Amino acid sequence: MNHIWIAIGLVGQLSFSARFLIQWLESEKVKKSIIPDTFWYFSLVGGAILLLYAIHRRDPVFILGQATGVFIYARNIYFVWSHRKNP
Q: Do 16 and 43 form a contact (C-beta atoms < 8 A)?
């Protein structure tokens, strides 16, 4: 069972880290710093998985950090959707 949670934690960390690769590649395409919508989706998915892992580990510092991040990522996705609805 511990190996499963380690795998879950690693998947969360990989998803969370992938957002930086996505941001860098998209910025290189347009030759300026941008934050693509997918950055926020990977942030939310990776952050949520890491939050579950932190809860499993019962680490209050990690839980607080990830819960705050998940809220911020979800709020940014809300802005992305709102902007698409009302350009």
A: yes
Residue range 42-58, pLDDT digits in tens:
999 999 999 999 999 99
Q: Which residues contact 46 (CB under 8 A, 6 or more apart)?
A: 12, 13, 14, 15, 16, 17, 18, 19
* CB 55, CB 33: distance < 8 Å: no
Computed over every residue of the chain, the mean pLDDT equals 93
| CB neighbourhood size of 1 (10 A) | 5
DSSP-derived secondary structure for 53-79 = HHHHHT-HHHHHHHHHHHHHHHHHHHH
